[in-house]
Design goal:
By secondary structure, the chain is mainly beta. It has a single domain (about 5-135), classed as Immunoglobulins (Immunoglobulin-like, Sandwich), CATH 2.60.40. It is about 10% helix and about 50% strand.
């Protein structure tokens, strides 16, 4: 069962990504340079999925957080949340690898999002990159 704090974080992150831009491209950038599994990997419900994302980022002027958000793209709100990993950033550029393992829920799509939240996790942002995976039914 997910805690209220986790559900709140995920709902806020999802709303932020959909709602608009306080932090925009003039404050930084993030790009997925490699991701595992491969885009064409066969992913099935109830399989263990090991996600590894290598990112290039730039953060201008202040601190922030770079997050790896794994979401059920068939769900809405707090129910979208599957897992997350966060890393604190200082101003500058770099490369970072984030990893997370999940058990694939009942869904047809998994989203992997990598937003940078400038100045704090609950700030709006458009600094993000993402990938989507098709999920097959359990064998």
């Amino acid at each position: 069962m997910k805690s209220k704090k986790v559900k709140g974080f995920v709902a806020a992150a999802a709303a932020i990504m959909l709602a608009g831009c306080t932090a925009g491209p003039d404050q930084g950038s993030v790009k997925i340079v490699s991701i595992k599994p491969a885009k064409d990997a066969v992913i099935r419900v109830d399989d263990r999925l090991d996600v590894e994302v290598t990112l290039e980022y730039t953060l201008k002027g202040e601190s922030g957080q770079l997050s790896l958000l794994i979401q059920n793209e068939d769900a809405a709100g707090g129910d979208m949340f599957i897992a997350s990993e966060r890393h604190e950033l200082a101003a500058g550029s770099g490369t970072l690898t984030l990893k997370k393992s999940i058990i694939v829920p009942q869904t047809t799509k998994i989203g992997v999002h990598t937003p940078i939240f400038v100045g704090g996790v609950y700030k709006k942002t458009s600094i993000t990159d993402h990938r989507r995976y098709k999920v097959e039914p359990k064998k």
